[in-house]
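Example 103, ligand magnesium ion.
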Amino acid sequence: MSDGAEYHYYIRHLLEQIGCERERQEAAKEAGRFAWTCADPVSNAERLVILAREFGEVCRATEVSGDRRAELIAARQGLRAELIQVAAVALAWIEGLDREVGR
Ligand SMILES: [Mg+2]
């Protein structure tokens, strides 16, 4: 497989992970954990609060404590998970914008 094809599949894998996180947001809303997602008809100011909160979680996840290999690996996985959440919130926001103009 060429490097280009490997990269293509890798990016698809990442986008699938973001899509799964996006679906998890909707499931959490359905379960009553929160009232809306950024895909719903709320203001951009409200959406920004959610994205900012997720960004803050990314910031905290960069604060690595400990120097053992296991701790560093866990920290990297935590940071990666937070970045996926930021991407999923951005995706939801785009969905919301697209719905506003009828796509
Ligand atoms: Mg988060």
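Summary: The chain has one domain: 3-100.
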